[in-house]
Design brief:
The structure is a single chain. Helix 1 packs antiparallel against helix 2, helix 2 packs across helix 9 and helix 6 crosses helix 16. The protein is an alpha/beta fold and 489 residues long. The chain is built from 16 helices and 13 strands. Strands 1, 2, 3, 4, 5, 6 and 13 form a 7-stranded mixed sheet that branches. A 6-stranded mixed sheet has the order 7-8-9-10-11-12, with helices on one face. The longest helix is centred in the first third of the chain and has 27 residues. 49% of the residues lie in helices and 16% in strands. It is elongated, with a radius of gyration of 25 Å.
Length: 489
């Protein structure tokens, strides 16, 4: 009998671990199947409430560590990080998830299911928020990015940023797990908890549906995007004749788009190396297009101004001096030798304002939020992805538009040419390898839309930190002799 019981526990542990690992594996990562994330933690949470805290900690840690293997190839091959980096990243993620599950379990089993309902989501948000400050990848690891295709839910970012999305995403499965556990011993409370989780989720989706149904601003800008993944162009081209050749090729595409009505044209990040002060020949090529057509051109270069190097966007406007924007957030180790910028580049038009950012800048709340505060209605973003992450990384910028109330036009090598509005809707998109010089031309709303997140910033992350602190204090009192005659908050 003891052997049968032990075998059953082992089988339950294996099934719970495998189920959660598989759901996280497919529900997150570079090409997430977003519905799976809504139930991904559920098997482990149900298991945790039926077994010891040690079993709960071990199974949840293993499940999260295995789930992280969905990014092994990306981290190792694309980002060039070794096994040690991957192991350290997901070992920390595994420990954090295990600690959150153990906290959840302790609160439920000590008669505080309402605290448990909030504690696990709050812990996850708190970790995501703090990680945002201590890693060079900003918000990129947030579970919220698994939901970029779920547009009604994505609208929550306009209120809470990604933090509220992670919270509600985990609240749903946490509520179901607690209700399942209490269904026999406290059925009414189980029903209330399930109804709370489902009700909050429903309210968020109703808000999102209403926001999506609102009419779009009528003020439109015609945007053109160009990129080339040809072998001779899919690198940082050397200065001099090579750079001039490439600039002439891009200029020819810009002429065609301008002839079709493009008012602003965006090229990718780091087309070529330019060396100050001898950039006149290269600059003259794009400046001539801007002067002749009236279109504004945004071109990414690697600008050398000794003793510094900048990942720079050069901005060409008709009969105007060349403006520049220097990328703020660098991708290690590839850009560790570059000097970060500190200033925005705002392009003021009679009734609208455009902003400029470069690739990884859009992984962070700033400079996007500062652009939103400046009234930007359209962000113009040169980029360069790694092919395998063309969907995931290319679409992270969508979140910034929803948060801060602007459309985004992004042109990336090894990625997508993509235009989205401030609701996260993809207005037009094509792969960068769809033609020798892939182009896209579309109209995009350019009116700034204020949001609650833009006004209040990371308020929900701070609320989550407070909820977590209260939950830990609650557990401390329960462990030190607090007794209850019935389940409490």
């Amino acid at each position: 009998m003891a052997f049968a019981t032990s075998s059953r526990r082992i089988l339950e542990a294996i099934l719970a671990t495998a189920s959660t690992a598989i759901l996280f594996w497919f529900g997150s990562g570079l090409n997430p199947v977003w519905p799976l994330m809504w139930i991904a933690p559920l098997p482990i949470l149900i298991f945790a409430l039926r077994h010891s805290w040690r079993s709960a900690a071990i199974t949840s840690a293993i499940a999260m560590f295995l789930a992280g293997s969905n990014l092994w190839s990306y981290i190792h091959s694309a980002l060039g990080a070794g096994a040690t980096a991957w192991i350290s990243i997901y070992a920390v993620a595994a420990v954090v998830f295990a600690a959150s599950v153990v906290l959840f379990r302790a609160l439920v089993l000590r008669g505080a299911p309402w605290s448990a309902l909030l504690a696990l989501p709050a812990a996850s948000v708190a970790v995501e928020y703090l990680r945002n400050f201590v890693t060079p990848h900003g918000t990129a690891g947030s579970l919220a990015y698994s939901q970029l295709n779920f547009l009604p839910f994505l609208q929550l970012a306009s209120i809470t940023g990604p933090w509220g999305m992670t919270f509600v995403l985990l609240l749903f499965s946490t509520a179901i797990a607690i209700a399942f556990h209490l269904r026999h011993t406290a059925p009414r409370q189980a029903l209330r908890i399930a109804a709370t989780g489902i009700g909050i989720t429903a309210a968020v989706l109703i808000f999102g549906a209403i926001r999506l149904a609102q009419p779009s601003p009528r003020q439109l800008v015609k945007v053109g995007l160009v990129t080339s993944d040809l072998p001779e162009n899919d690198k940082v081209v050397d200065p001099g004749s090579d750079a001039e050749r490439l600039f002439h090729a891009y200029a020819a595409q810009a002429d065609k788009l301008a002839a079709q009505g493009a008012q602003v044209i965006v090229f990718p990040e780091k087309l070529a190396v330019t060396v100050n002060p001898s950039t006149g020949a290269e600059d003259a090529i794009f400046q001539a297009v801007a002067n002749n057509t009236g279109a504004t051109i945004i071109a990414g270069v690697l600008d050398v101004a000794a003793p510094y190097k900048y990942n720079q966007a050069r901005i060409y406007q008709a009969e105007a001096p060349i403006a520049t924007y220097d990328k703020e957030h660098m991708l290690p180790p590839f850009e560790s030798n570059l000097k970060p910028g500190t200033s925005l580049a705002l392009l003021h038009r009679p009734t609208q304002t455009w902003g400029v950012a470069i690739c990884k800048d859009m992984d962070f709340a700033n400079p996007a939020r500062r652009n939103g505060q400046a009234g930007v209605g359209l962000m113009l973003v040169p980029g360069w992805d790694f092919k395998v992450d063309r969907f995931w990384h290319g679409h992270i910028a969508v979140m910034r538009g929803v948060e801060d109330g602007f459309s985004v036009a992004r042109a990336a090598k090894q990625g997508y040419l993509q235009v989205t509005d401030d609701r996260g809707r993809v207005l037009a998109q094509t792969r960068s390898d769809s033609a020798p010089y892939a182009t896209l031309l579309t109209e995009v709303p350019s009116t700034h839309q204020s949001t609650l997140y833009l006004l209040l910033g990371d308020w929900f992350a701070w609320l989550s930190l407070a909820i977590l602190a209260v939950a830990l204090l609650r557990l401390y009192h329960l462990r030190n002799g607090e007794t209850t005659s019935r389940p409490s908050a």
